[in-house]
Every structure is written in C-alpha cells, then in structure tokens.
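Hi R.,

As promised on Friday, here is the backbone we talked about, encoded as structure tokens. Could you run it through your design pipeline when you get a chance and send me back a sequence?
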C-alpha cells in the first residue's frame, strides 16, 4: 500500500534510534493511528507498571494525516494507562502531526527512561535526545514559548506540564497552548520517562498514490464544508452550541452529575461566548476551527470548548464564563485534563458537602478551586487525594463515596449526564478507554428518536457509531467534526484513502478494520487485568439510583435491568461472551488467532 512512511523507535535509556518499515499486513489490518497503537502495545507492552520505564508511549498518525484534506492535522497518542490500568489513548490536533509525516514517519515508539530531564528533536533523518533541564518545571505555555523561540513558531511541539512531571494520573500531552490529548494519564507516562517534550521539524513531502486526484478531492471537501447550512453557526459557537441544547434536554453535567439542568445556564452558554469572543484557534488543515478564545477573569487569553465549560462550569456550580476560562487556562498550563479535573473537583465538593473531608469547598467557590488546581498539579494537600482520579479517591475515602465517583473503568465521564439517555450511558460503559464520548456520541441521535427506549436498534446504532468514530476516524487519523457537525458525507473518506494508498476500501472493509481494533483493545484490557469483565462496563450507581430533581427529565433514572439487557445485546452483536471477552471464533474471523492463547 502506498501513502505510508516508516516507524521511528527511540530508546531513552540506551540512546538508540532505529527506523523500521511498516508491513502491508499491518497497514491493511489496522490502517494507522489507534490501529497501529493497539497492535504495537499488544505486541510489546505486557504486564508492566504504566509508570515504569518498561512502558512505552506511541505517537501515531494515519494515512490521511497531514494531507490537504479537511481537518487532517491529528495524531493519536497511546500507552498503557496509569489512570485505568488498561489501553489508553487520545487524539490531538497539532503541527507535530504534519511535521512527523513530513519527516517520513507514521508512528514513533518511545521506550525506556532518560537519566535526566530530556526532550526529543526530530529533523527528518536526524533524531536527537537533548538535555531538557531548563524546561523541567516550566508550565506548558512557558515551555512552548522557549521551544518556539529556539526552533520556530511553525515547528511541531508536544510537551507536558508540571502535572505530568509529578505523575498526576490524569495529566495530558499539550501542544500550541490549548490543544490536549491523552486523557488517561499519558502526560504522566512522558513524565515517568523524564521526557518533557518532542519537537518535530519535517521538510519532506507526504506520499500519495494520486496527488492530482487527492488535491481535487481536498479542494472539493473544503468547499463543501463552507457551503453547509450549519457552518455559519458552527463558526460562531463551535462545540459550545451543545451547552444550551444539553441544558434544555436535561443532560448538562450539573453539581457532579446530580442534575442535568443548570439554573444559571443562560449566563454562560454559546451566545454569551459569542459576546466575549476575541479569537478562534484550530488544528492544522482545518477550516472549521473549534477553539474559541475569550479573556478570562484575569484578563488573559484562554481557549474554551463545550467539554471544559461543562465540567469546570455547571458540574462544579460555577456560573461565570470568564472564571471558567481562568480555570481552564490553569489546567492547560499545568497539563491537566479538564474533564477529569472538573470531575475530581465536583467529587470533592460533594464529599465536603457530605462531611467526608474536613476541608470546606463549596459549589462555585472559584478561589478555593484555583488553589485546588495548584494542589492537584503538585500532588499535594487535598489535591493528592484525587491525583489518581475519582475511582482511587473513592476507594481511599470509602463511606459509599463510590456512588458519586463519576467514572467508568477509572476514566472520568465527559460532559453528558445520562440519567435519561441509556444509549449514551452504554456508550460510556463500552468505550475502549473508559468513559469517553469521542468513540460514540450517540446522545443527539438518541434524543431525536426515543431517548428512553432500551431496544436492540439503539445498541446496533451505538456499534455503528463506534465503528465510524472510534474505528475509522481514530485510525485514519482525521477529525470527525466535518462529518458530525456540518454533515460532510462519509462517502468522501474511501475516496480520500484510494487517492492516497492506491487501494479501494469500502465502508464494510473499514468496519471490519474497526471491529478488529475494538476486539484487540478488549483483549488487551483482559490480558493486563485478569479480573476484567462485565462489571467494568457499567456507569456509576448515581445514574441508576438517584433521579434528577429538576428539568425536562425530572424523576428519570437508568433502569439497571434494562441496561443489563442492552449490554448483553452489545456483547452478542460484537461477538463477545457474556463477560465481554471476544469469542475464539470472533478473533479467528478477524485474523487475531495469536490473541486467543493469551486471554484464555
């Protein structure tokens, strides 16, 4: 298959650098991005402590990455997660994606551990491990500035903040002062390797089988996006258009997911964002930028989107958009995931309210929250309690606190309350990294049909979304927003692939690749956690036991028995056993025979 580069391997312990070819079998079976990541982790990372030097961190692009195509500036960062203990990844839009491909590499594997703080410099064939002592301890904005000054503003830079250096297990990898990836603690994995940053400067061309055809298709795609009916509103509000919609439909995370509607929502919705808007930021190759910049409450620039506003706003009782922007900027500087951070803060506020901790931290107390963010980033004081996430915090505190620890598999739930959305609850339950919306954002479809149904059609639709979003888009690797938000047709993507690789793949072929990836991720969870099984696929007790007390879906909660039936249907349709483990015949049908002996 054409359109691919090489694998770059860097061992920080020995200083050895090697460049390897990628087989056509690997390309055909796993496509790129997430697919390459899980295959490499399955082969190379077995039964290791996620924060030991034996773990590896992968930076993987796909065949569409960096091409002149809509929103193609993405890469996947993956590792064994220190937050969940299973497969962990996240995508990030960054110039580093483009530069890595221009340097000739599709995926980089970093292993071992530097003796001292270091960073990687990749300039085409030249790969150096350099001293990073002057960067260590700097926040992500400071380190970005220093590296840009040295290597140029257009270089590709990935880096961690002090939270990653301190091993905070929901620390992320940052880029370009606002782009973030790796929610399951991949910043901590970099920190454990004494790796502060990766700088990439590529000057080559990205290969394609039919460059003229690809150029024509790219121009058509960009033009089509701008002509879409929803494009103008998207450019005004971006993902923040979801804020008002979630509030109206009772799924806005409010007071640690107790409620789904916030009484002060009109003070901080997308229309308020429009009034405060000063700038827009996006990933490379994108003409529908999703990052909206406002002045925060300290008069500094801060980037916002729906997820961080939902989790650092209503979820902790905060009603001021500039104050939310301040907290979000602090999180970005420290290199903390804003979703997990908002969940941890909400958890602590509820613990304080219930008297489980002596500290007084009330809903909407922005001054206390600012101090808490610093403590979380340092792993000190009250921040230490939640530095491993809400699951670990609840295990420490006991006293039934697990009932309001909002996570699945150890990963905190992103900003959708599912008291009255059983399909989205199942999406969170079966996401391959824990409670992430990116794999199957089924909630809009669910609410537009029969939101309270528990039928098999809903399960089938969930799997379809997982195949497209978590299978194809995460492996291609491109952003899903052109399809999701402005309805760029899915038929365009096999055409893009054919122009790049020279091979024609139907959506049925791409679904098969996506299923193979999901089966292997599932097997990885089982191999690394022998106790893994059905019980790991349930959302928190709160959604089953405590109905909302206000809003459109007042009194509604998820029916546990019906959810359990949906989960059984999900396993059946996936070809997994009743405990959620891929069946032998399923693995054989997807060319994964070698997996069978390792998971029993």
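Update: got your reply. Pasting your designed sequence below so it's all in one thread:
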């Amino acid at each position: 298959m054409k359109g691919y580069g090489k694998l770059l391997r860097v061992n920080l312990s020995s200083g050895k650098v090697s460049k390897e070819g990628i087989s056509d079998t690997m390309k055909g079976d796993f496509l790129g991005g997430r697919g390459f990541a899980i295959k490499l982790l399955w082969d190379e990372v077995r039964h290791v402590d996620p924060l030991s030097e034996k773990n590896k961190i992968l930076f993987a692009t796909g065949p569409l990455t960096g091409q002149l195509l809509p929103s193609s500036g993405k890469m996947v960062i993956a590792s064994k997660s220190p937050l969940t203990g299973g497969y962990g990844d996240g995508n990030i839009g960054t110039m580093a994606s483009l530069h890595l491909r221009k340097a000739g590499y599709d995926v980089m594997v970093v292993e071992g551990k530097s003796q001292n703080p270091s960073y990687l410099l990749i300039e085409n064939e030249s790969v150096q491990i350099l001293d990073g002592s002057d960067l260590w301890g700097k926040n992500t904005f400071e380190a970005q500035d220093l590296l840009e000054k040295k290597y140029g503003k257009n270089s590709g830079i990935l880096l961690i903040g002090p939270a990653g250096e301190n091993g905070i297990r929901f620390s992320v990898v940052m880029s370009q002062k606002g782009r973030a990836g790796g929610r399951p603690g991949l910043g901590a994995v970099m920190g454990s390797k004494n790796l502060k940053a990766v700088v990439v400067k590529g000057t080559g061309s990205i290969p394609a089988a039919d460059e003229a055809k690809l150029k024509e298709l790219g121009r058509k795609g960009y033009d089509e996006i701008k002509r879409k009916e929803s494009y103008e509103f998207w450019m005004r509000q971006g993902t923040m258009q979801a804020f008002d919609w979630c509030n109206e439909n009772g799924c806005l995370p409010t007071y640690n997911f107790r409620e789904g509607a916030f009484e002060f929502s009109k003070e901080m919705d997308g229309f308020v964002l429009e009034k405060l808007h000063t700038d827009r930021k996006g990933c490379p190759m994108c003409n529908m930028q999703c990052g909206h910049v406002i002045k925060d409450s300290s008069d500094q620039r801060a980037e916002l989107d729906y997820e961080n506003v939902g989790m650092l706003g209503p979820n902790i009782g905060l009603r001021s958009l500039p104050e939310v922007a301040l907290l979000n900027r602090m999180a970005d500087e420290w290199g903390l995931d804003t979703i997990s951070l908002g969940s941890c803060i909400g958890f602590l506020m509820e613990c304080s309210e219930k008297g489980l901790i002596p500290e007084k931290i009330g809903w909407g107390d922005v001054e206390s929250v600012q101090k808490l963010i610093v403590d979380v980033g340092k792993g000190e004081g009250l921040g230490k309690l939640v530095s491993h996430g809400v699951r670990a915090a609840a295990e420490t505190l006991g006293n039934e606190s697990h009932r309001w620890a909002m996570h699945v598999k150890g990963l905190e739930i992103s900003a959708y309350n599912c008291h009255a959305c059983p399909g989205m609850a199942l999406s969170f339950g079966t996401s391959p990294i824990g409670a992430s919306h990116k794999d199957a954002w089924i909630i809009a479809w669910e609410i537009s049909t029969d939101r309270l149904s528990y039928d098999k059609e809903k399960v089938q639709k969930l799997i379809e979304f997982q195949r497209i979003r978590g299978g194809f888009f995460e492996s291609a690797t491109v952003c899903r927003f052109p399809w999701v938000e402005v309805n760029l047709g899915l038929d365009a993507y096999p055409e893009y692939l054919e122009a790049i690789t020279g091979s024609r793949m139907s959506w049925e072929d791409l679904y098969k690749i996506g299923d193979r990836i999901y089966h292997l991720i599932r097997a990885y969870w089982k191999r690394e956690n022998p106790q893994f099984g059905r019980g790991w696929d349930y959302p928190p007790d709160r959604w089953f036991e405590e109905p909302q007390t206000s809003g459109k879906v007042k009194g509604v909660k998820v029916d546990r028995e019906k959810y359990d039936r949906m989960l059984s249907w999900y396993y059946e349709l996936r070809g997994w056993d009743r405990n959620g483990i891929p069946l032998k015949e399923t693995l054989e049908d997807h060319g994964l025979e070698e997996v069978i002996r390792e998971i029993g």
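One thing I noticed while checking it: The mean pLDDT is 97.

Thanks again,
M.
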